[in-house]
Amino acid sequence: MAIEWRGVMPAVTTKFTSDDQLDLKTFELNINAQLDAGVHGIVLGGTLGEASTLSNEEKSELTQTTVNIVNDNVPVLINIAAQTTKSAIAAAKKAEQDGAKGLMMLPPMRYKADGKETVAYFKAVADNTSLPIMVYNNPVDYGIEVTLNMFEELLSCDNIEAVKESTRDISNVTRIKNAFGDRLKIMTGVDTLALESLLMGADGWIAGLVCAFPKETVAIYELQKAGKIQEAIEIYRWFLPLLELDINSKLVQNIKLAEVATGIGTENVRAPRLPLIGEERSKVLQIIEEGLKNRPSLPNYKSL
C-alpha cells in the first residue's frame, strides 16, 4: 500500500492495564472508533503513544495488532525515535517485517546532531528500507530543526516523502510549498494550528485530540477540503480549548482523560508518568466537561 499523505492520521495513545501490561482490548476499541470516524491512517509510538517507555517487543506487538485491526483499510505507520543510526535502521527493518506501511522519524535522540549529521542519519535509514518516510520536524520539543536546505538534500531519497510540520511557524507551510511543491507532502503536527495549516496548503493532520474526538477531527478536515470553511471554523472554535490540552507537557495524561470521558480509553499511563491529581486534574476535567456539554452536531461529512 502506497501512502497517500492526506487527511487525518491519529497519533494514537498506547493503552495499558492497571498492572502495566498492554491493554489490547481497549486499544482495539479506540482504533475501531478512529476507523469508524473515517481517519486516513494510524500513527503508532509517538510522544502521545509513550514510545520512550515501550520495549521493542511491545512496539512490535502494537504494530502487528494494528495491522490486523485495520485490515489494509488505512496505512499503519510507526514512529522511530532512536539514539543511534544502527538502532534506527534495525527499527525500520522490524517495522517492515511487522507490516507497517510507513515510518515517522525523529532526528537522533539525546545527542544534538548538527545539520550534516542529521541528514546523514535520515539518509542511512532511507537507504535501508523500502518504506516511505515522514520526517518529524519538531525543533520546539526535540531541539533539532530540519531546515529547507536539509530537506533539499534529503529529497534525493525517493522514499522520504513527507514532513510532520511542527515548527509552530505557520508560514513554514508556504515556504515548503514554494520550495518543493508536491514533492514533499505536509502533515501538520500541531493541533492548535491544524485548520490554519490546512487552509495554507498542508495536505493532512497528524492529530492528538482525535484520540478522544475522532469524528469532530475528521469533520474539520473534510469540511475545509470541500470548501465549507465557515462550517469547519465553527467546529474548530469549539474544539480549541480541548486542542490546547495537546500542547502541554502532560498531553498524554490530558488526552487519556478525554478518552475516558468519550468512552474509548482509560487513564492508565506508564511510570514515570502518573495520572493527574488535584487542581491540575480538576482544570483538565473542567475543559473536557465544557467541551462535551457544548459538543456540536456534525454534518454528514463523509459524503462531502
TrEMBL record:
Keyword Lyase: yes
Gene Ontology CC terms: cytosol
GO terms for biological process, alphabetical: N-acetylneuraminate catabolic process
Highest taxon, organism lineage: Bacteria
Active site, per annotation: Y136 (proton donor/acceptor), K164 (schiff-base intermediate with substrate)
Keywords for this protein: Lyase
GO molecular function annotations of the record: N-acetylneuraminate lyase activity
One Pfam match: DHDPS
Residues bound to pyruvate: I206
Matches recorded under InterPro entries: Aldolase_TIM, DapA-like
Family, as annotated: Belongs to the DapA family.
Protein name: 1-pyrroline-4-hydroxy-2-carboxylate deaminase
UniProt source species: Tenacibaculum jejuense
Origin organism lineage: Bacteria, Pseudomonadati, Bacteroidota, Flavobacteriia, Flavobacteriales
